[in-house]
């Protein structure tokens, strides 16, 4: 095992994938350090979901290599599938079952002892205990997404793949998912997060890569990416609250969602 493999939970080299004449991935290189949150940022069609599907062994690459938790996705797919969880863009919960029943069902399918205890533990970890006895179809979008992520974590996989997990969610539900990702990170999991929301990557990620037209065109910490731009010029402006801040202040009960005061502050450009 190389030093790179020991330090990287995900290692991608020269990955290519085409669908007919459409070249989706054009030689992607990527390293995700163990125990970190890595955001893959890109617009629709940039190739984010295709890359995740290759890492999850759902698609085969045309060229290049990819390793997850030290296992090659092409030559050792079974070991790769044992090493990660995947949450896609839409919650994969059974809306007829209760939250607890959804979790217990997955635990039994994975042959874990005491499925009920596993379900109760995850309900507590994801702040769903009070809703655990309710049908998942009655949950809000944010609650369904949290339940979906909780289901994917049964068995404690070391790598978590989140493919645009907040797509279609309202601002309040997005905040719930962000808090969930932060809890995962604090617990030592490695998280690869694909997103097209800039503020999502800025808040959650230790490192950010920008995927554009099938290639990684920038990769670094937030500070390193900001350093690519010309030096900031300081001006004094009157900062007004954003519409999202207004929305969260009106409907939310989280003190962190209070809108900024409309006072004079400094702003970097």
In short, what is this structure?
The chain is of the alpha/beta class. It has helices at residues 3-7, 48-55, 77-81, 99-109, 115-125, 141-152, 171-186, 198-204, 222-226, 243-251, and strands spanning 8-19, 22-33, 37-41, 63-68, 71-72, 84-87, 159-163, 190-195, 207-212, 215-220, 234-238, 264-268.
Task: Provide the descriptors you would attach to this structure in a database record.
269 residues, alpha/beta, six-stranded mixed beta sheet, disordered C terminus
List the SSEs and their pairings.
Elements: H1 3-7, E1 8-19, E2 22-33, E3 37-41, H2 48-55, E4 63-68, E5 71-72, H3 77-81, E6 84-87, H4 99-109, H5 115-125, H6 141-152, E7 159-163, H7 171-186, E8 190-195, H8 198-204, E9 207-212, E10 215-220, H9 222-226, E11 234-238, H10 243-251, E12 264-268
């Amino acid at each position: 095992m190389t030093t790179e493999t020991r330090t990287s939970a995900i290692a991608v080299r020269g990955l290519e994938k085409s669908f007919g004449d459409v070249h989706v991935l054009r030689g992607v290189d990527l390293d995700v350090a163990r125990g970190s949150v890595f955001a893959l940022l890109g617009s629709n069609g940039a190739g984010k979901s295709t890359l995740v599907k290759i890492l999850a062994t759902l698609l085969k690459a045309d060229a290049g290599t990819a390793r997850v938790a030290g296992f090659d996705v092409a030559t050792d797919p079974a070991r790769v599938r044992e090493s990660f969880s995947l949450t896609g863009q839409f919650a994969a919960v059974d809306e007829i079952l209760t939250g607890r029943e959804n979790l217990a069902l997955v635990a039994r399918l994975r042959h874990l002892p005491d499925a009920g205890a596993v379900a109760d533990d995850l309900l507590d970890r994801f702040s769903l205990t009070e809703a655990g006895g309710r049908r998942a179809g009655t949950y809000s979008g944010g609650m369904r997404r949290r339940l979906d992520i909780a289901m994917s974590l049964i068995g404690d996989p070391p790598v978590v793949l989140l493919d645009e997990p907040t797509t279609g969610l309202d601002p309040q539900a997005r905040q719930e998912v962000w808090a969930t990702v932060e809890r995962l990170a604090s617990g030592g999991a490695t998280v690869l997060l694909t997103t097209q929301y800039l503020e999502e990557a800025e808040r959650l990620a230790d490192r950010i890569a920008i995927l554009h037209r099938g290639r990684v065109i920038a990769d670094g910490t937030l500070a390193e990416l900001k350093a690519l731009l010309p030096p900031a010029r300081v001006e004094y402006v009157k900062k007004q609250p954003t519409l999202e801040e207004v929305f969260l202040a009106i409907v939310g009960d989280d003190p962190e969602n209070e809108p900024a005061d409309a006072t004079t502050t400094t702003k970097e450009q």
